[in-house]
Fold this protein.
Amino acid sequence: MLRSSAPCLLAAALAANLAVPAPALAYWQWRDANGHMVYSDVPPSAAAARILHAPGRHAGEFQPAQAAAQSADVATPAPSKASAKPAVAAPTPEEAFQKRREATLKAAAEDARMETEAAERAARCAQLRNYATGLQQGMRAAVAGPDGSLQHLNSEQRQAEILKTSANLEKHCS
């Protein structure tokens, strides 16, 4: 009975291994400064000293490459204060995610604004073209007078309005 169950167990273990997709194994796991467990697809900053899992490495605690290199260079003298650059803290994975998210949202909002402006411009240009066509075809047109009453355009005023409308079309709709 023991011999017949060994191939079944081997087959079950192999099937379980193949059932987990490779991207599911490509994650980072570490404890942050507050002791909270963090899971991410982005590597932690150099400040994370307790990395528990990294893609392609066996489970267990290890030091990041930067921390290992720093501990190996302990005997190296520190640079003078004149040549030392101020340390800039690397963003945490959460901060990096938020920054990427904000950039994506900002780009989407900008695209939406540009589309709205283009649609409004197209509508204004269509109205202006219709007005110019109406003026050229002799459509009766009027403008508001100083007292608010409508004053119909005479032929000279119509020509001036056609020139003005054509100039606006050239300037804004070409």
